[in-house]
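Two proteins, back to back. First:
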Amino acid sequence: MTDPAAWTLSAPEALAAVGISYLIGSIPFGLILARLAGAGDIRKIGSGNIGATNVLRTGRKGLAGLTLALDAGKGAVGVFAGGYFGAEGALIAAVATTAGHMFPVWLGFRGGKGVATGWGALTALAWPSGLIAVGIWLLVAATMRISSLSALVATVLAPFHVWYFVGPWTALAVAAVCALIWIRHRQNIARLLRGDEPKIGGGT
């Protein structure tokens, strides 16, 4: 997408972009799929989150993969829906869609950590940055074997290459998305600082 030259979105348009994209982001695909597959309520296992990582704890890899794809997809769909109101609407939608996944009204505002949905929104805004973020995640995961650290490093770097590929307004929106992801990872950050964050394939 193109970086806005100036902020011209009206208040009603901004509210519409927020509302529509938030509702898209709030669809709890992980919870729905787990129930349909007979895996129970994923909020009662593992971390209690509704994202793909917790769905994987049910032992259903295919189900977790589908959750990952749908969560990323709704991030992109939310951005495109917001884009109906122009470039500014797309930027607002990126933040609102991710927030919808993290704080869905249907589940008492207790959702997932937003990595997949945030990545989908990022890719819709700047697809080269989406590819770079995946590359960074894979590189950190391969060397450090810690999923949360991979996500944190990928997100903290995202606004910089988004600025390069698109511009400052889009980078600011991506920075807001990344800030939300860091907030939802505060427990992971605490474990990283203590040195007891589980590693990929560590069985914990």
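And the second protein:
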Amino acid sequence: MRQVVLLRGVNIGPRNRVSMPQLREALADAGYADVVTYVQSGNVVVTSRKAPARVASDCRRAIAELFGLDVAVVVRTREELARVVARNPLGEVATDPKRYQVSFLDAKPPHDVVARLEALAAGSERFVAIGKELYAWHPSGVARSKLWAALAVQSLGVTATARNWTTVTKLLELAGG
């Protein structure tokens, strides 16, 4: 089964540096097949029969052992990622894939967190929460967006990591979708 491994907060500036070639090699040595990375921001696609939670814990452990970092990891199967793309609840308004973000969570967020995020969408921004994904459209970019600032911090009550729509669709393609 193809699975997409999403690392939170790696290779952004000088901190949390993770070498993708070293990570690919470590995961292959751990028994994962067809290990592919996409860009340097912590996107890995693997083939494994292990449950997604086990894949996440294996990746987290490998990163801790190799790089001495405690990095949050969220995993989606190819089928789950295909559903994320098929839903595309903001597809009619999100015209620039680099400003359209999906936050992948390890659990469904609390209702009060979703309500707080919905209230932060300002102007032409849009926000939709579906299960363990949060879709956000930032037509003016993320620099001054209060919604993006809230999505980017670790105060959602769950582990989260975001990818723009270009990356989401490329990962699905790499996973065979």
